[in-house]
């Protein structure tokens, strides 16, 4: 049974990915700051034939990532698939909006992904296998105006993923950056 950890799985794309893995009969760790949404995803996962558990995780917290790694190792003894999907969005012009928005979105969308990768790469290296998928966006490749901080984080996730792709090849760890176009979720509500 594949052991899969998905961040941002309480809603939107993360939830859909969890349901897709559930259909393959995977065991899924649903990690999010939205505990209510995580519980709802778990119910749907079980209904779809998978199994799983929920974990409270703020992707910006190194301590929480370390605690989750300890949980995962105790429960599963390793990890097959890590999906760093949690993300938020901003819409701002370079000379408008709050500077704090830059700190906020970089912490979640970019540093949160890098932290997840740093936390679980040693686990995958040890087992000499694994797959990491980082949710970037088309916005990291084809730049739209009035979204500078968002675009920058997604371009950063693509650069991080490509770097890791080359770095981790020798350890039999595959790395992908997912770059979807626009689709309707709760992203504009945070
Ligand atoms: N919706 C789109 O059009 C679109 C397009 C391209 C890429 N994306 C990306 O897809 C990913 C998922 O977004 P979505 O559209 O499903 O949005 P969503 O808001 O429905 O889901 C995002 C999830 O991330 C969680 N989250 C937010 N901050 C967090 C944190 N600090 N720690 C842990 N979890 C946190 C939220 O609670 C939520 O469950 C994001 O990375 C987003 O940038 C979305």
Protein described:
By secondary structure, the protein is α/β, with parallel strands linked by helices. The chain has one domain (3-189): Rossmann fold (3-Layer(aba) Sandwich), CATH 3.40.50. It contains five helices and six strands. Helix 3 packs parallel to helix 4. The longest helix is centred in the middle third of the chain and has 29 residues, at 99-127. It is globular, with a radius of gyration of 16 Å. The mean pLDDT is 97. The structure holds nicotinamide-adenine-dinucleotide. The site of nicotinamide-adenine-dinucleotide has 30 residues, from helix 1 and helix 4.
From the structure above, extract its key features.
single chain; binds nicotinamide-adenine-dinucleotide; Rossmann fold; six-stranded parallel β-sheet
In summary, what is this structure?
The protein is an alpha/beta fold.
Order of helices and strands: EHEHEHEHEHE
Rounded average pLDDT? 97
Please bin the fraction of helical residues: 40-55%
Overall 3D geometry? globular
What is the CATH topology?
A: Rossmann fold
Give the cofactors and ligands: nicotinamide-adenine-dinucleotide
Q: Tell me the Rg in angstroms.
A: 16 Å
Looking at the overall shape, the CATH architecture is 3-Layer(aba) Sandwich
Main sheet, how many strands, which sense, barrel? Answer: 6 strands, parallel
CATH class type: Alpha Beta
**Uncertain residue ranges:** none
Fourth-level CATH superfamily? NAD(P)-binding Rossmann-like Domain
Provide the structure class: alpha/beta
Tally of DSSP helical segments: 5
Number of strands: 6
Strand content: 15-25%
């Amino acid at each position: 049974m594949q052991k899969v950890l998905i961040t941002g799985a309480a809603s939107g794309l993360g939830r859909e990915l969890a349901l897709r893995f559930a259909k393959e009969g995977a065991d899924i760790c649903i990690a999010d700051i939205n505990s209510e949404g995580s519980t709802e995803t778990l119910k749907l996962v079980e209904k779809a034939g998978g199994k799983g558990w929920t974990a409270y995780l703020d992707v910006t917290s190194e301590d929480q990532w370390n605690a989750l790694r300890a949980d995962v190792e105790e429960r599963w003894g390793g990890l097959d698939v890590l999906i760093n999907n949690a993300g938020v969005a901003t819409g701002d012009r370079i000379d408008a909006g709050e500077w704090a928005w830059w700190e906020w979105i970089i912490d979640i969308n970019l540093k949160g992904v890098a932290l997840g990768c740093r936390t679980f790469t040693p686990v995958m290296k040890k087992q000499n296998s694994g797959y990491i998928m980082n949710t970037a966006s088309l916005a990291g490749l084809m730049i739209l105006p009035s979204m500078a901080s968002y675009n920058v984080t997604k371009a950063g996730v693509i650069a991080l993923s490509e770097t890791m792709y080359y770095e981790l090849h020798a350890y039999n760890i595959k790395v992908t950056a997912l770059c979807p176009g626009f689709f309707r979720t709760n992203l504009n509500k945070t």
